[in-house]
TrEMBL record:
It comes from the Bacteria. Residues 33-123 form the YokE-like PH domain. InterPro entries: SHOCT, YokE-like_PH. This is PH domain-containing protein.
Amino acid sequence: MRSFEQILNDISKIPYHDTFGTKKEIKYLPNILDDNETVLSFTSGFFDGNTWLIVLTHRRLIFLDKGMIYGLKQREIPLDHINSVGHKIGLMLGSIAIQDGASAIRIDNIQKQTIVPFIDALNKSIDNFKMGRSTCKEYSSMSSADEIKKYKQLLDEGIITNEEFNIKKKQILGL
């Protein structure tokens, strides 16, 4: 099981993402991800009557909805089961449609600036998975300043605390 800090490190390197209404789901990710699984992209959207976190790893696509008070809904699709991916972009929001064999999943109300980067990462991951390559190190060339900016964004979004931000900043700067 990956630690919350490791997951925060992964998501801090993702340039375009949306966490609207999914803080509980992000905090639950360590319970779902395997030790060697890296978050490559994520966004939030409306699916099955609720706001869900959609997470792409190098092995699978995870849909996660942690209830208001209790409960958990989770669905996942291994990358080799995805047959097609489509998207639609409107004025402010868009949608993504994913076909996996006989079923189709449509996620609506996705922030439009996250759709194309998410689709690109998903298609690249599917290609790499089918070719037997891993994309875990895809975002490893980020500068220290960029990494700190990403953690600052997580702090501003309320995903991490000020203390967690300061600890991570010191780690990045080697202090």
